[in-house]
Amino acid sequence: MLTLLEQLDKGTLWQSPGGIHPPQLKTLSNQSTIARLPLAHRFVVPVPLVGEQAVLTVAVGDQVLKGQMLTEGTGFTYLPVHAPTSGRVVAIEQHATNHPSSLPTLSCVIEADGQNAWCELIPHSLEQLSKNQILDKIKNAGIAGMGGAAFPTHVKLNPASEINLVIINGVECEPYISSDDRLMRDYSDEILKGIAVIHHLLNPQRIIIAIEDNKPEAAKAMQDAVQRSTLPAGIIRVTVIPTKYPSGGEKQLIQIITGKEVPSGHIPAQLGIVVHNVGTAYAIQEAVYQGKPLIERVVTLTGEQIGQPGNYWLPIGTTINDALQAVSFNPSAAQKVIVGGPMMGYALADLDVPILKGTNCLLAPSAHEIAPDVDEKACIRCGECAVACPALLLPQQLFWHAKAEEYDKAASFNLKDCIECGCCSYVCPSDIPLVEYYRVAKSALKIEAEEKRQAEQAKVRFEARIQRLEDEKNAREAKAKEAAAKRQSNMKSTDKDAVAAAMARIAAKKAQATSSTVSPEAPQTTVDPKKAAVNAAIERAKAKKAAKANTVSRANELDTSSAEVSVDDKQAKIAAAVARAKAKKAAQANTESTVQTPNPAETEVAGTEPTADAVDDKKARVAAAVAKAKAKKLAQAGQTDDSAVEAEPTTDAVDDKKARVAAAVAKAKAKKLAQVGQTDNTAVEAEPTTDAVDDKKARVAAAVAKAKAKKLAQVGQTDNTAVEAEPTTDAVDDKKARIAAAVAKAKAKKMVQASQIDIGEAASQPTVSVESTADIAPDAALTVTADSADLSPEQIKKAKVAAAVAKAKAKQLAKRAEQEEQ
Amino acid sequence: MAFKIASSPHVSTSLHTNTVMKRVAFCLIPGIAVQSYYFGFGTLVQILLAVSVAYLAEAAVMKLRNKNIKATLSDNSALVTACLLAVAIPSLAPWWLIVIGTLFAIVIVKQLYGGLGNNVFNPAMAAYVLLLISFPVQMTSWVAPQTIAMNHASLLTSVQTIFEINQSFAAEYFRLGIDGIAMATPLDTLKTDLSMGLTTTESLAKPIFSGLAAEGWFGVNLAYLVGGLVMLKLKVIRWHISVAIIASLFVCASFGFLVSPDTFVSPLMHLFSGGTMLAAFFIATDPVTAATSPRGRLIFGAMIGVLIYLIRTFGGYPDAVAFAVLLANMCAPFIDYYVRPRSYGHRTGK
């Protein structure tokens, strides 16, 4: 088994399927060397993509030199356009272009001054330039594939994958065309120099120059040039392939030379193969060694209606009319002028269009040279088209479906793999213009795909809009409720009303969060003012639970148990606070992934309930007020963690009146802060309000908070740091300090686990960390007091109240922290 | 001036449908000539009759459909259909037989389905089956080949017989054989003999058989084979269907012959009697009703070959070409659907 390289060296050829043998008719134009025509007076140079990818560098009235850049672009694939001769820019306007549609495109019209004076050219040798500089030179010379597709050459010379084989395409399989044939005969050494540049850039293992056997002179010339060239021996060879249309197609040529098929939807570079036209190789050489941009090319002017058929150097931008007039074009009636060959070329309606970089032939045939216009007849399913198809398609099935406009079915027969070579139409005994059907079907599929894409985009936009409207509506409703609740609270001023107002506000907040209404439950709570408060608290707790409600069972039990107890005024309020705390905890538990923490917390609370009896009236109210303030702040607060921080210390242990005042103040501040922004300073500002706080408690709380803050900050790093916090509590009252410290330590650990504050968050949001820890301390105290009998009832009471309040806060904050995290 | 625009390609081959059909008709000539030699001028009369009726019928339908009569008639497809039907029926069959058959083929089988290219069934074969089922006696009464017949009809007597002009001159005289017994085709004879307990050797000893194949029919088949080879050479048809039919029929017949030479006839007998070669080159290769891809055509042809053998050997009819072709016609769209060639750059056909 020979390797591919060995087979390439031997010149082994593979069979390409299908194909046809139309009359060649190349001798009409290939008998003389490439000539020049007198310089035309007017040139039309299309400057496409100006405004999209490029800008014009000239204006109307400017003098330009031959080879001067007319546009400058930024895109990787953008190729600049150059002036084909020296002269004056007389117009930059929409002008019909050389395209089957003749649709106008922005063009630069240049009036030649006859001097044909070059701009400054910078010649180089390969050694002087880096690969990137060479590629830049090729790009700036505006070199596009000269075989017809006009793909930017520098892109193909800078492939993502390694290239093993370069095929230089001198096949020229279309009838009539001989521009590559003549170029190879007349400029073989220059082509080899261009190939050397390609070799330098791609460094392939082999370079094959493929030429059809109907061009023996060209093959001979190239063979001689290869021998003269300086390229390493054994790398390059001329391979003559049998004449068959469309062997010059990229995919077909690769198949003939290597036996490989380019997978559908891929490019040859993925096989390590790249194909360049001989004309491109010539242009590369001009650009690199002489610094000349691509401003002229060889065009075959042929057909029986042309007086002097042959190959000519034509500046790009020469109008087809000028070119044909210069070679004695004599149009007949119903004359066709075809750009390209008779198989794939397109007929022009208007000849005032320019020669482009890919224009290799102008064919002006007499009536008997081309197929007469005949009506399409019925397909007899002879299958000749399938035999001729080089892409191994079933043209007849494609036609069947394309004609019936069943484009999806046509696509299922691999319509997109059709290369539009025209073999099927050529052999069709029924004169069916098959390729035309395929073009229509392809366009229809393209439009369909585009419409589908747009419809999908529109759907996404529509859904986003619906969502936005929904969100806005919810936000408006929530705002309205909040405003209503605030009005209500402003109207009344008794203690109970304040509590109720707070509850109402909280309910409103919850409603905002959950979109579910709490109000239906409210009417049930109307006994005496005290009970009302109790019930309200319970309702609140329930509402929260319901809102969060994935797993409410535990919280529910606790609620009902507290509700059933016929408590007095004081108890009621404590219970309310407790219930609230529990509810929050329960809610938090539901949202947390680790369920372990809430359970102990709840049991602790349950245990403390009986001992709460001793708490006095004032404190209960204080607790309520505090809760209110907190709740409000927290609810408002998506806004800022800081606002929560300030309000909390404010109310800790003030008496009744002060509590209300403080609450009001805190509320106001919280709002202000929420509006004003979220600066770290706000936390500082809030601190002075804590002056009013009861001495001892303040100290305790402060110390604990301090300790906790430290711990928490450290805990992020290590569990052991919790111990360090202990010494800081020395200043505090003995018993409390001990209890608080122990509890705080435990809690801090728990909390760290529970609220899942990771190191990152602890660091980035110090305020939150401090806050939550500070809250946890009393919470823990509550737990511990239940079994520590040596504490005075007074202390226990205070501790519990504070604990309940703080606990609630802690949960909320923790929850919020979690949400923010998410 | 405004120039003429058109879609590429701008050149085309000169082999058009009408040329293809004309060539098919020309390639039938050797077969028709030999058939006329053995079975009298009746065949020519039948062809003339069939072609006239076919063109008239097609023109009438085109008129009804408001289509261009000239364009349709000039595609020569009616000519081929008429010729194929005419050579398939007994040469001295009464005139109304071929008229009914041709009308059915052109009007119902072809035009009612949408005209050329849209018919599901081969028109000639569908008409043949209609006639065979409706008029079995007339359809199986072949005259004896002239080499063994006592009398053979002149052109005039053939016309008279076909048009049933001179009843006294007795169509029966020619239609019936030497001894007044209806002359069945060799395959029919063989089938009858086998069912009567004779061995193939005993049956083949009868004068209707000469050597290995049937008297007359061997020559006719050989002539159609020659015509078919010319068509291949002219690229009017591709080889796949013909080769597949012949090969599969040969394989089946060889197998049967090897297993039991007494009850199964030789492969040569199968290949060169009845309508085998006519079917293999002229009937089954009708592109409209056949599969289109090379592989599909091989399957299509093989199917016909096997069906011919099975029906001839085990079925109720002596020859089976028409049935086999119609059955395969039905399968053609399925074959095309499931047998798709692999496209360039694709791993599989779908």
UniProtKB/TrEMBL annotation, chain B:
**Keywords, comma-separated and alphabetical:** Cell inner membrane, Cell membrane, Electron transport, Flavoprotein, FMN, Membrane, Phosphoprotein, Translocase, Transmembrane, Transmembrane helix, Transport
Give the GO cellular component terms, alphabetically.
Answer: plasma membrane
Q: Any idea of its EC number?
A: 7.-.-.-
Modification FMN phosphoryl threonine, positions: T185
The GO biological-process annotations, alphabetized, read as: electron transport chain; transmembrane transport
How is it placed in the membrane, per its record?
Multi-pass membrane protein
Q: Which residues cross the membrane?
A: 37-57, 69-89, 125-144, 239-258, 264-284, 296-314, 320-339
Q: What cofactors are annotated for this protein? A: FMN
InterPro entries according to UniProt: NqrB/RnfD, RnfD_bac
Q: Spell out the subcellular localization from the entry.
A: Cell inner membrane
The organism's superkingdom is given as Bacteria
Its subunit composition reads: The complex is composed of six subunits: RnfA, RnfB, RnfC, RnfD, RnfE and RnfG.
Q: What does this protein do?
A: Part of a membrane-bound complex that couples electron transfer with translocation of ions across the membrane.
Q: Which family does it belong to?
A: Belongs to the NqrB/RnfD family.
Report what the protein is called: Ion-translocating oxidoreductase complex subunit D
Organism of derivation: Shewanella algicola
Q: Lineage, please?
A: Bacteria, Pseudomonadati, Pseudomonadota, Gammaproteobacteria, Alteromonadales
Q: Which gene encodes it?
A: rsxD
